UniProtKB/TrEMBL annotation:
Entry annotated with the keyword Cytoplasm: no
The keyword Signal belongs to this UniProt entry's keyword annotation: yes
PANTHER family: PERIPLASMIC CHAPERONE SPY (PTHR38102:SF1)
Signal peptide segment: 1-31
Localization annotation: Periplasm
Main location (coarse class): periplasm
Family matches, as InterPro entries: Cpx_auxiliary_protein, LTXXQ, Metal_resist
UniProt keyword list: Periplasm, Signal
Name of the protein described by the UniProt record: Spy/CpxP family protein refolding chaperone
Similarity field: Belongs to the CpxP/Spy family.
Pfam families: Metal_resist
Upper classification of the organism: Bacteria, Pseudomonadati, Pseudomonadota, Betaproteobacteria, Burkholderiales
Amino acid sequence: MTTTRTSNFFHAAAAAAVSVALALGATVTQAQPGPGGHRGGPGMMAPGGLFGGHMDHLLDAVNATDSQRSQIEAIFKAARQDLASQRDAGMKLHQQMAALYTAANIDAAAIEALRVQMSAQHEVASKRMSQASIDAARVLTPEQRAKVSEIMKKRQARMAARQPG
């Protein structure tokens, strides 16, 4: 995986975690199950703001104040910094996995051990982004979180309608 693709993975994961956590913040208070995640794309860190137009659009839709936007941006900036070292480690793990699969003899035990390491790394990143998402959700009011939840439900319905089947 290239540096750009790895970086984009973490940015996309962050955007998905934010959207889901904000939606969950609203639905948990209503004792309802929260929605699932969604995939982001390579433009998530475009110059348009936190995660490009996506996060700005979400914050615009809930009339977030400049203070709320600054706080949320700081929360995710800190999370990105915390996870920066994992990007290099993740690239090395992916390179090792590629080498194992292209070796003359396939070592199933080594592949499994590496898979376990990769899963552990993903779990650490997921936990960190989940905490950042919780912190971001706490910046918004209950009414704003309810609005985010509605936006996410509509987005999920649109995505589900596009699925074949």
